[in-house]
Amino acid sequence: MTQLAPITAVACSTFVALILIRSVWHKSHAFLETVGFAQGYGLVPDAWTPAIIRALTVVEAATVFGLLMPGTHAWAGWAAAGIFAGYGLLMALALARGQIRIDCGCGGAPQRISGLTLGRNAGFTALGLGIALLPSGGLGPLAVLTGIAMGLTFAALQGVAERLAAHLPNIRRAS
């Protein structure tokens, strides 16, 4: 039972790292698309957006490395929480301005920003805070592998949930 918190930290770190890896991948390989999504928010001048996307890509990549390296998960958890909270704030600002038809730009299945995406980001922010606050270390190889397997399972479930959420607008219209 004393290893539950560190195993949970490994599971959460793995899960959050996978989310951020997908985000970095999307920003790197679909750069112009990501810039277009970001410009859809209309919160900064269009000319600034490419530089901001590049900077966010670097910050997210550094956070991934921090999550995966022993001894750095605390600062990486804080960074991940900040990233997800920041994205959530941008979505909330856009929603408050009545922008309900823009894609979140998260890199997964296309999703319009909504209360659902805000809730998702709040959950991801809480995971980042949990990573920052949970103790780590002192785990044997089996415990580490258990945590990684848990994180991979969470990522698979998240992928299914995102696919379902991407179809919500069509489901609502059909009923």
Give the strand tally: 0
- Give, in order, the helices and strands: HHHHHHH
Helix content: over 70%
The value of Rg in angstroms is 17 Å
Global structural class: mainly alpha
Number of helices: 7
Biggest sheet character? none
Distance between the termini: 47 Å
Show unreliable segments: none
Mean pLDDT: 89
The 3D shape can be described as globular
Q: How much of the polypeptide forms β-strand, as a percent range?
A: under 5%
Question: Could you walk me through the main structural features you see in this protein, from its secondary elements to its overall organization?
Answer:
The protein has 175 residues and is mainly α. Helices cover 76% and strands 0% of the residues. The protein has helices at residues 4-29, 31-41, 49-68, 73-96, 115-133, 141-166, 168-174. α1 runs antiparallel to α3 (49-68). The chain is globular and about 50 Å long. The model has no long low-confidence stretch (mean pLDDT 89).
What's the structural blueprint in terms of helices and strands?
Layout: H1 4-29, H2 31-41, H3 49-68, H4 73-96, H5 115-133, H6 141-166, H7 168-174
